[in-house]
Design brief:
Elements: H1 6-9, H2 14-17, E1 29-34, E2 37-41, E3 47-52, E4 55-59, H3 67-75, E5 84-86, H4 92-95, H5 98-103, E6 107-111, H6 112-118, E7 122-124, E8 129-131, E9 142-144, E10 147-152, E11 155-162, E12 170-175, E13 180-188, H7 203-215, E14 222-227, H8 233-255, H9 260-266, H10 270-276, H11 283-298
Parallel strand pairs: 4-5, 5-6, 6-9, 13-14
Antiparallel strand pairs: 1-2, 2-3, 3-4, 7-8, 10-11, 11-12, 12-13
Length: about 300
């Protein structure tokens, strides 16, 4: 089983978890993805960055406590604070820095549903945890329903809504000229994903999202996942296959009337677990999550 740092495993439960992270615990590293496009890797969702003559454009911003370290890394790319921050979805490991960056003058942008969810208390029934509403300053001030384009740093940065996948407010972002994609938590590279069913996510929607991303990419596309290393289309193909195969097995057992405990006992995905399970989304949690998703499909 894949072992991950403690901080990483808390990423999608971020309300209370962010208070447990302290700056000395985390190092922000910067990798070049394409000319003028970077990824910042720390604790929480991977941050996409476009840096150039028009300033800084950010995709996600990790936890609030990490903002000083994020800003230190960004200062090496451009002297000014980010002009725009685009959130891929509402989870606080992707939006926790919103309030801090908005105070510096950044414009926060997201899908309509992201603002809706951040505006009120949320519940993770799957994990028996609650998340308080975000401060008003952290909320997106520009929202959209279907798609939105930014024209900056010599590229078109296009965000497209993908319904009911990881959550009900996910977007995938494409740098059209550079041929770089930021997938947010639609793509957990090399591991079982977390699907936030309580926020409208579903395995069927996540597979549809993978199909969408494959349709708008090619063999030269560089893909920044929400979590994990930057990869290419081949990695996304493998991820999509894993989702389809493992969920189909669980769906077949659910349709046959098997309880979730019976499905767990059957170990339907034993051949995938060794590679894809990790200590946050274990074999058991993955089965329970997919089982609940397919049960909702069958109701």
């Amino acid at each position: 089983m894949r072992r991950m740092p403690m901080a990483v495993a808390l990423t999608t439960l971020a309300g209370a978890a962010s208070a447990q992270l302290t700056p000395p615990d985390v190092t922000i590293t910067t990798e070049t993805v394409a000319p003028g496009i970077y990824v910042l890797i720390g604790s929480g969702g991977n941050i996409g960055v476009s840096a150039g003559g028009d300033g800084l454009f950010l995709i996600d911003d990790q936890y609030a406590v990490l903002t000083p370290k994020v800003e230190e890394a960004l200062a090496k790319l451009h002297p000014q604070p980010p002009r725009f921050v685009l959130n891929t979805h509402w989870h606080a490991d992707h939006t926790g820095g919103n309030e801090n960056l908005a105070t510096r003058g950044s414009v926060i942008v997201a899908h309509d549903r992201v603002r809706q969810r951040m505006s009120v208390d949320q519940a993770f029934e799957f994990f028996k945890r609650a998340v308080k509403a975000s401060p008003a300053r952290a909320l997106p001030v520009v929202t959209f329903n279907d798609s939105l384009s930014f024209h900056a740093n010599g590229d078109e940065i296009r965000a497209s809504y993908v319904p009911n996948a990881h959550t009900d407010g996910d977007v995938v972002i494409v740098f059209r000229k550079a041929n770089v994609m930021h997938a947010g938590d639609l793509y957990f590279e090399g591991r079982y994903p977390f699907i936030d069913i309580d926020s409208g996510g579903s395995v069927a929607g996540l597979i549809a999202a993978a199909d969408h991303m494959l349709a708008i990419s090619d063999d030269k596309t560089r893909i920044i996942p929400g979590h994990g290393k930057v990869t290419g289309r081949a990695g996304l193909v493998e991820y999509r296959k894993m989702l389809a195969v493992t969920s189909a097995r669980i769906r077949e057992l659910a349709r046959a009337g098997k309880s979730v405990e019976q499905v767990l006992a059957a170990k339907p995905n034993a051949d995938y677990d060794a590679k894809w399970a990790w200590w946050f989304i274990t074999e058991e949690r993955y089965v329970r999550m997919i089982y609940e998703s397919v049960q909702r499909e069958l109701r």
